């Protein structure tokens, strides 16, 4: 076992790092670049039953503090990612599939097809896309979330994970965690998706910076790090039988280490990967290893969830 070895669902990972769904994972070439990188695993773009063009461009902009996007789930349709998953060499790296149906029925149809393929792919069910006009984020509607998890547990009938939106109120942490805890097949919780429906303004142009939804979109990067860490830690504390994947604001080994302290078992990279490319994983691994060695840690296990309170 090496310093950066990680584990999720009893599966071993050479590094805790992977892409956040949506970045570097729409096309086979991008997934292959993830495979060739120093990431420990990779996840496919959130898929829908049918291919989607997504929202009109420009729909992603990087800013000094991160990014804003309203992509609108552009993807090649679940069959494309299922084909990739069928051909994938699981001995090389674990593969996650992100599933984001536009309805409960769509999700059940996709989960049924993926289940029938009998693959070791790990499913992350996206309950938190903020960018499809007319489709609210499922995990902000606790009744809809409960029904979705109930149906997914029945149809999928094996361990899976959920991609969650950020919450901002202790009562919401409590309620969301209670729902997740009622579903034992939900074995991991990915916190967080982008903070939805933010507005970035360019003062020179006196304008929004992305076209869809009058400029409203999900933000990532530096803006979201403290919110991401709070959500990782809130669910880590409340869901002792589940694992947490951290996502949000990772751009160096320091933020990876923060996510681990907060309770993350794996850590996803979104905005910084989009901006820097797949070479970022070699840098993040090296920076994380340097921090661990400097502090005398011999494994990620020793760090996970060990955040001190005052
Ligand atoms: O920020 C996001 N953008 N989160 C999602 O879940 C989907 C993605 C998109 O395609 O809009």
Automatic annotation (TrEMBL):
<dbReference type="InterPro" id="IPR013785">
    <property type="entry name" value="Aldolase_TIM"/>
</dbReference>
<dbReference type="Pfam" id="PF01180">
    <property type="entry name" value="DHO_dh"/>
</dbReference>
<comment type="subunit">
    <text>Homodimer.</text>
</comment>
<comment type="pathway">
    <text>Pyrimidine metabolism; UMP biosynthesis via de novo pathway.</text>
</comment>
<dbReference type="InterPro" id="IPR005720">
    <property type="entry name" value="Dihydroorotate_DH_cat"/>
</dbReference>
<feature type="domain" description="Dihydroorotate dehydrogenase catalytic">
    <location>
        <begin position="4"/>
        <end position="292"/>
    </location>
</feature>
<dbReference type="InterPro" id="IPR001295">
    <property type="entry name" value="Dihydroorotate_DH_CS"/>
</dbReference>
<keyword id="KW-0285">Flavoprotein</keyword>
<keyword id="KW-0963">Cytoplasm</keyword>
<keyword id="KW-0560">Oxidoreductase</keyword>
<keyword id="KW-0665">Pyrimidine biosynthesis</keyword>
<dbReference type="GO" id="GO:1990663">
    <property type="term" value="F:dihydroorotate dehydrogenase (fumarate) activity"/>
</dbReference>
<keyword id="KW-0288">FMN</keyword>
<protein>
    <recommendedName>
        <fullName>dihydroorotate oxidase (fumarate)</fullName>
        <ecNumber>1.3.98.1</ecNumber>
    </recommendedName>
</protein>
<dbReference type="InterPro" id="IPR050074">
    <property type="entry name" value="DHO_dehydrogenase"/>
</dbReference>
<comment type="similarity">
    <text>Belongs to the dihydroorotate dehydrogenase family. Type 1 subfamily.</text>
</comment>
<dbReference type="InterPro" id="IPR033886">
    <property type="entry name" value="DHOD_1A"/>
</dbReference>
<dbReference type="InterPro" id="IPR012135">
    <property type="entry name" value="Dihydroorotate_DH_1_2"/>
</dbReference>
């Amino acid at each position: 076992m090496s310093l950066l070895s990680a584990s999720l669902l009893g599966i071993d990972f050479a590094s805790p790092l992977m892409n956040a769904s949506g970045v570097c994972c729409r096309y086979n070439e991008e997934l292959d670049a993830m495979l060739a990188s120093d990431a420990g695993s990779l996840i496919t773009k959130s898929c829908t039953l049918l291919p989607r063009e997504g929202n009109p461009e420009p729909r992603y902009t990087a800013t000094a503090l991160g990014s804003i996007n309203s992509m609108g789930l552009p993807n090649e349709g679940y069959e494309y990612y299922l084909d990739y998953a069928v051909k994938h060499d699981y001995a090389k790296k674990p593969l996650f599939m992100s599933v984001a149906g536009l309805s409960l029925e769509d999700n059940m149809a996709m989960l049924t097809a993926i289940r029938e393929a009998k693959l070791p792919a790990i499913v992350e069910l996206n309950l938190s896309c903020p960018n499809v006009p007319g489709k609210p984020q499922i995990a902000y509607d606790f009744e809809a979330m409960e029904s979705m998890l109930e149906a997914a547990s029945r149809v999928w009938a094996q361990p899976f994970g959920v991609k969650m939106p950020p919450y901002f109120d202790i009562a919401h942490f409590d309620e969301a965690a209670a729902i997740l805890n009622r579903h034992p097949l939900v074995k991991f919780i990915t916190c967080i998706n982008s903070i939805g429906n933010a507005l970035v303004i360019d003062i020179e142009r006196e304008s929004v910076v992305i076209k869809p939804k009058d400029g409203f979109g999900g933000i990532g990067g530096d803006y979201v790090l403290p919110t991401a860490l709070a959500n990782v830690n809130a669910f880590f504390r409340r869901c002792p039988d589940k694992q947490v994947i951290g996502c949000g604001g990772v751009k160096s080994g320091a933020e990876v280490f923060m996510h681990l302290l907060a309770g993350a078992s794996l850590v996803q990279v979104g905005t910084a990967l989009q901006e820097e490319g797949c070479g970022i994983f070699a840098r993040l691994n090296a920076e994380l290893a340097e921090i661990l060695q400097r502090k005398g840690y011999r494994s990620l296990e020793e760090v996970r969830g060990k955040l001190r309170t005052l």
